[in-house]
Write a structure and sequence with these properties.
The complex is a heterodimer. Helix content of chain A is 64%, strand content 0%. Chain A has 7 helices and no strands. The radius of gyration of chain A is 16 Å and the shape is globular. Chain B is globular. Chain B is of the alpha+beta class. The longest helix of chain B has 23 residues, at 12-34. The chains are: A mainly alpha, B alpha+beta. The interface between A and B is large, with 34 and 41 residues.
């Protein structure tokens, strides 16, 4: 399966899973909201250039927004993580294995610890931005801190469950493709 | 000139980042103000179709509950029919409360049944999609009510679908009153629990008790809710020493997470009322 087709399928699946499964889960608490859709942006291939990454994230966020009803709410955090992603990857990518480069960020391509840091940082950035937009309209500081922390925790759990359930075959990036 | 191009080329990613973020924030704020967005109605039609397909499956699992809800509503309406009452003698006259029911004989409210195809309760601002649109005569002055109580207000209409701002929305504000004493206040949601709403600006002279009924008021500023519809029951009186008003915690009559059918209502005399109000002398 080509990388383009795979990402188009992922695009659709992540939006549908978020809109029709995770958003339908009865709320456990005001702070706890399962958010997984942005994993699409984290899984984008390395080969796409930075400008394109942000435009894809913009479109992805906008599609998500039309399902939840507030256009713009998910666009801003999605573009933010797409912008921050290359910086983090530059730091975290193992330097010594230049001859073996993988197609996209995963546990195999980065290694356990760097991948966890990568996911944690971007999840936190995404949630902080998302909750900040809500917080600017209403709410108090405890709400902001509490919601960011609780949602980040639940998202991390979901991301690692997803990684366990759907192990992606780590494909080497070749010159022929 | 060459330097400008060099600058743009050098900081292209950063500039693109700011442009995209700016667009995002622009969409967010203009949408909140006007309830219309870029491609708003087209996107509404697309997401509406997908939601409907999903709901076809989900609806099946809730048939029993929906059925019970509608049967209970029918029973309630039947008990209000004139034939359900019998006067003991001819000197006894049934008086209909003119405050709650219009006895003028002019149709004031129009009802339109609609299927709920998408619904959320977990967000900070929740919206509901109904399978009725401008082709069926829906407009943005309409309000939505459910079998058990009121639901929200129509904010966006496309050809076959409309989007309703549910009561579970931080931006929603509905005029409601206590059934006992007719004290009017503002009904809002504080974003915590989808089962509870907050009724504020109730005068302290109101004798409020736990379990009292809250209904829609006959003063409708923006919405076209028929007066006297069930909103919920009071569960707690929140003390507010600073002001001369009470805040009440209200258990919502509508269970938003199991909502499957709603009615759209329109106040047909709205134009007339507004025209008359506009003519009020300023001094």
């Amino acid at each position: 399966m080509s990388s383009l087709l795979k990402n188009i399928i992922r695009f659709i699946l992540f939006i549908l899973v978020q809109a029709f499964i995770l958003d339908k889960v009865p709320p456990l608490h005001e702070y706890v909201k399962p958010i997984l859709y942005f994993l699409f942006v984290l899984w984008l291939p390395f080969s796409i250039n930075r400008g394109m990454q942000m435009i894809i994230a913009f479109i992805f966020g906008l599609c998500m927004d039309y399902f939840t009803g507030t256009p713009g709410l998910h666009v801003v955090p999605c573009v933010l993580i797409a912008y921050l992603r290359p910086f983090l990857l530059n730091i975290l990518l193992p330097r010594e294995t230049t001859e073996v480069s993988y197609a996209e960020p995963s546990i195999k391509s980065l290694g356990w610890a760097p991948y966890s840091v990568y996911v944690l940082m971007l999840t936190f950035a995404h949630h902080a931005c998302l909750v900040l937009i809500e917080w600017l309209q209403f709410g108090d500081f405890v709400f902001f801190i509490g919601k960011v922390a609780a949602s980040t925790a639940i998202s991390l759990l979901l991301i690692f469950v997803t990684e366990m359930l759907f192990p992606r075959k780590a494909k080497y990036r070749t010159n022929t493709a | 000139m060459r330097n400008i191009f060099l600058f743009i080329r050098r900081f292209f990613t950063l500039i693109l980042f700011f442009v995209l973020e700016g667009t995002g924030i622009y969409i967010l704020y203009t949408y909140n103000k006007t309830h219309q967005a870029v491609l708003g109605t087209v996107a509404n039609e697309v997401t509406g179709t997908i939601s409907e397909k999903y709901n076809n499956v989900e609806y099946y699992f809730r048939l029993k509950k929906t059925n019970e809800q509608l049967a209970a509503e029918n029973a309630r309406l039947r008990s209000m029919l004139p034939t359900s009452f019998e006067s003991p003698d001819t000197s006894h006259v049934i008086i209909t409360d003119s405050l709650l029911k219009d006895t003028m004989g002019v149709r004031k409210f129009k009802f339109l049944e609609a299927k709920v195809v998408n619904n959320s309760v977990t967000d900070e601002n929740n919206y509901i999609t109904l399978h009725r649109g401008s082709l069926q005569g829906v407009n943005t002055r309409m309000a939505a009510i459910g079998p058990d109580g009121i639901v929200g207000k129509v904010i966006l209409v496309s050809d076959n679908y409309c989007r309703v701002m549910s009561l579970l929305n931080r931006k929603s504000k509905v005029s409601a009153m206590l059934k006992n004493g007719f004290y009017t206040g503002d009904l809002e949601w504080d974003g915590t629990d989808p089962a509870y709403l907050k009724l504020s600006n109730i005068s302290k002279s109101a004798k409020v008790q736990k379990g009292d009924t809250v209904v829609t008021s006959n003063i409708s500023d923006q919405l076209s809710f028929p007066p006297g519809l069930m909103v919920g029951t009071i569960v707690e009186v929140l003390p507010d020493k600073a002001s001369s008003f009470l805040s009440l915690r209200v258990k919502s009559a509508t269970n938003f997470s199991t909502l499957q059918y709603a009615y759209l209502t329109e106040n047909l005399l709205w134009e007339e009322q507004k025209q008359l109000e506009a003519k009020t002398p300023k001094d």
